[in-house]
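Sanity check record (used in CI):
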Amino acid sequence: MNNPNREWMYDRLLEDGFINPRFIDRVKIFVEFAKSHPECMDDEKLRCPCNHRKCRNKNILDEFTVMTHLENNGFVPNSYRWHHHGESYIPGASVFDNHQEETSASGETVNSQSHNEF
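Expected output for Transposase-associated domain-containing protein:
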């Protein structure tokens, strides 16, 4: 399932062929997220999620190299969850969600993340 908050991962290049500044900013956020989960790192290195055949979350590299690889190769296709970088799987949730609470008709506070329509 695509995560609409992560569509930026596949919007790397502008129409003129230059790197999208939004992509670069979000790559920095991704790296900071990965670094905040040292249990998924090898000392100061992290798995490279770029689409190069040697990487694809297998190659463990330093931060600068990972950022360079992502700028040059983009992310591995359909990788909307950062499982290899510390993100646990929560259906329908995103690290960019604001976790706002809603008030139900009965006046109870409901966390929108835990609401299940089914």
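The first helix runs from residue 21 to 35. If this sentence no longer matches the regenerated tokens, the check is flagged for review.
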